[in-house]
Task: structure prediction
Amino acid sequence: MSKLPLLSAREFFKVLNKFGFEKIRQEGSHVFCRHTDGRTTVVPNHPGEKLDRGLLNKIVKKDIGISREEFMKYLWQNQVFSISFNQKIWREICILYAGFNTKRQKPERIGKYCFLS
Result:
């Protein structure tokens, strides 16, 4: 199981939007989001800083209610993030979520995205 990526609050709000959460209000640097079915979460919005993996894990598992693997698959399929993974994690994500790579092709990085050559 790979580590969750470090995402900025802005990138994470895009993900929350796709899962049906909307920004309700903001108090200081904390943004309150609510889903149409009543689930809520609070996300700190500090410009220039990334959200900690522990907080992301808590929000993904408890508040959104999906597994880490589903979350990573969603990030990969929609290319939400603009971050640099270390090589091992990046390669693992490419192999797992790019069609399960049955031909053992070498993943190739072009900019911030991963392609199989």
